[in-house]
């Protein structure tokens, strides 16, 4: 994978413990930002009620996942809460070639791998306002079995220890404030010197830069 400052777009990774509000925030952000697309992850976990194959995830069997992994189809992959999750390499490469802005909703292990491959990536960590609120949100979402909720809550503590590796932290207490924070991060990311220069070659030439 060859990544340089010539990449015109922005790449954001959203990492948070389960129930912090990643998917809700990312979905709201996508609705108001037409230039932004989300990476469709592949997973071996079962779909939740209402989740659609090809929209929320590509749902595959462990056998298919391992085959694709061994063929090198994933830019990163990780085992999270007992299931495999991975990011498609070709899809990301295509988005970067066209200069699109992309957002990845991945776990901290995947985020560490992506950062090594694509140093210009911006890592955003979402904090819940409290552990109690995290638990309440997981239960209120009502889509996971009790054992799954317990497992995800137990993992939250470990995941939170990786917050210091992120470039940004958004506290998802009042939803609209958290969404506004995400918009500001995207806006700032789009104004980084590398992408601005890559988007404006003619101006650079005229300015003698
Ligand atoms: P959520 O935590 O409630 O959003 O539940 P999900 O089942 O959607 O995601 C489970 C975990 O897998 C989360 O930490 C995600 O960020 C992570 N995840 C999702 N897709 C990917 C991926 O493509 N790669 C990696 N490494 N992690 C992923
Ligand atoms: P994640 O993708 O991080 O697991 P979700 O986006 O599924 O989290 O959110 C978990 C639950 O919390 C959902 O039911 C969602 O509606 C709710 N939620 C998200 N953000 C807030 C917020 N700021 N205040 C209250 N509830 C929230
Ligand atoms: P869930 O099963 O609740 O949808 O996701 C559980 C965790 O897996 C979340 O932390 C989510 O961000 C992470 N996850 C989802 N897709 C990917 C992926 O493609 N790669 C990695 N590394 N993690 C992922």
Automatic annotation (TrEMBL):
Residue positions binding ATP: 16-23
Entry's localization field: Cytoplasm
Occurrences of domain Guanylate kinase-like (ranges): 9-187
Molecular function terms, GO-annotated: ATP binding; GMP kinase activity
Entry EC number(s): 2.7.4.8
Enzyme class: transferase
Matches recorded under SMART domains: GuKc
Sequence similarity: Belongs to the guanylate kinase family.
Protein name: Guanylate kinase
Record organism: Polynucleobacter paneuropaeus
Lineage, uppermost ranks: Bacteria, Pseudomonadati, Pseudomonadota, Betaproteobacteria, Burkholderiales
